[in-house]
Amino acid sequence: MINNMKLKYKLIFFYIIVVMIPVLIVGIILTNYFREGALNRAIDQATNNVEKIKSQLSSKLRVPTDISNLLYFDEDLERLVTTHYPDALALTKAYLNYTDIRVYVLRYREISNIRFFIDNPSLVDDMSIAPLTPELESRDWYKKAMQTGEIYWMYIPDKEKYFNSPRGTINKLSLIRQVYYRESGKSGILMVQVSQDELNQMLYQEPFDTLIIDEQGYIVSANDPQLVGSTVDDFDIGVDVQLQSKGVLKTRVKDKDSYVIIDEMSPELSSSKLKIISIFETKSILSDANNVSKLGLLIVIGVLLVALVFVYTISLLTTNRLLRLSRQLNQVALGNLNIVSRIDGTDEIGQLSRQFNYMVASINRLITQVIESNEKNSALEIAQREIKLKMMASQIHPHFLFNALESIRMNAHLKGEKELANIVRLLGKLMRKNLEVGRERAPIKEEVEMIRSYLEIQKFRYEDRLEYEIKFDPRAAEIMIPPLIIQPLVENSVVHGLENKQGTVHVNVSITLDENQEVQVLVTDDGIGMKEERLSEIVDVISKVEEEERGRIGLRNVHQRLTLYYGEEHGLRITSRSGEGTEIAFSIPVESEFKS
């Protein structure tokens, strides 16, 4: 649609798209920027306050944790609570002699009370140490502490009251942990109650509504002390803060748009977590930012008027230059390749003018190159025909050689030289296969026949000095592999295996198809083998891309072809030990295609 519009309409269209709408968006963004800036400052302040409270809370809760650790390993406390007392006098003396709990409560302002509950009927409740009762065992906090033996922090509300004295009510954040005494086999529950005044003092000067809640949702501390003991649901926050670990949420609190900052802390050595929540109303923060909207509207109107003048001017200048370039393109379309564009300027139209000149010059060069290329192709085609004729002529010589070998074989056979006739037949068969190496692939069975022919000829030559065995999996007979890929390995084993060794050398060839659908080829001999230095030198030579005169041409040729066709992992693997022999192996994936 845009391509079919006239230029002046395009410019107006793009003026609306590129100028008006963006300027309006900028105005909106500018207004929102100040609004967001005010909100971000409030969020940053609330977040910093939450971080400060988190640090202070962690410091205050470290004291009850350290005291619980001391009492956990307190042998005097263990002896006091696990001893069975025959009468009240003995129990009273024991209580009077143990003063650690009372000292901790008086010394540390962070602690309001310490309680210890254990199953010992001879104990009485002295507001610090008390015997375990069925009512206590039914409490959720007791069950949770007894299940895992870990430290838990939770708020125990008024409904958990079970003492006759007002001092016995819990109604505050408490550390609860199981204490197990190995010698007696008894377990007790240690409860360290945190001072509510200490918790509230942290939040007293907070500018926003700030809460600390436990995992059950109870408010353990707040800058409004009246909220302590209620649940976070009573505060009417529009989201489930129990599902949030940390973040800034925008929601409605008590039917007012508000932001909620949530952070989470795990007191030292504790498996439970506490959340710090800060809440502030959006409207109270944005009152100043709304005044920016009027200024933004004036800026938008001024920018739009200035832009309109620029659009009209640019449209006149651009149209004239484009019309000149259009006329020059028409000249090229009519076949005039000698035209030169002279539109000035370094903008896009000026670049088009220069590219136009470059295009005309390139067309002229391409025409010249096409003419030269056609001449070269004609010459190449003539040369290829000559090569083909020479190749056809060269086939006469192998044909003559095969006929001569066949005549020798027949003559030897007629004279009773059957062994010699068989060797000549094998030699002719081997030479024919070697001359067919120009084929891209050949079945494995043909490669095996060539190996067998080669080994029979060598057996004829070396007699008892050479013994061989070929193990061939019939399932791999029709699998196609590169020709002459195994024979050079067998030749290497025969030639180098017989070097400097007295007695018989055994050459074994194994070709199998494994369960991974890979052909495994293994050629071994029990010749003199090689030292590690010589083996490393050979491996280095066959792996080099460039051929060396002193290198092993056969092994290198096989290794390079294998890696070229199937990848590095399928190249030759050579192992050898001096005096024991040499082993050469490689694998070919059945389903793999050549990589070149």
Word description of this protein:
The protein has 16 helices and 17 strands. It is of the alpha+beta class and 596 residues long. The chain has a five-stranded mixed beta sheet with strand order 2-1-5-4-3. The longest helix is centred in the N-terminal third of the chain and has 66 residues, at 7-72. The chain starts with 6 loop residues before the first helix and ends in a 7-residue tail after the last strand. It comes from Paenibacillus phytohabitans. Its main location: membrane. Its EC number is 2.7.13.3.
Helix and strand layout, with pairings?
Layout: H1 7-72, H2 75-82, H3 88-97, H4 100-107, E1 111-118, E2 129-131, H5 134-137, H6 140-148, E3 152-156, E4 172-181, E5 186-194, H7 196-203, E6 209-213, E7 219-222, E8 247-253, E9 256-265, E10 274-281, H8 282-285, H9 292-333, H10 348-394, H11 396-414, H12 418-435, E11 442-443, H13 444-462, E12 466-472, E13 480-481, H14 487-498, E14 505-513, E15 518-525, H15 532-543, H16 553-566, E16 573-577, E17 581-589
Parallel strand pairs: 1-2, 12-14
Antiparallel strand pairs: 1-5, 3-4, 4-5, 6-7, 6-10, 8-9, 9-10, 11-13, 14-15, 15-17, 16-17
Helix pairs in contact: 1-7, 1-9, 9-10, 11-12, 12-13, 13-14
For this entry, give a set of tags.
596 residues, alpha+beta, 5-stranded mixed beta sheet, 16 helices, cell membrane
The SS-based structural class is alpha+beta
The fraction of residues assigned to DSSP E strands is 15-25%
Figure out the total of helices: 16
Q: What's the number of extended β-strand segments?
A: 17
Largest sheet: 5 strands, mixed
Mean of pLDDT: 79
Low-confidence stretches: 160-167, 387-400
User: So what's the overall shape?
Assistant: flat
The helix fraction, in percent, is 40-55%
Q: Using the CA coordinates, give the radius of gyration.
A: 48 Å
Biggest sheet, spatial arrangement of strands:
2-1-5-4-3
Distance between the termini: 48 Å
Organism: Paenibacillus phytohabitans
Enzyme class: transferase
Membrane topology: Multi-pass membrane protein
Protein name: histidine kinase
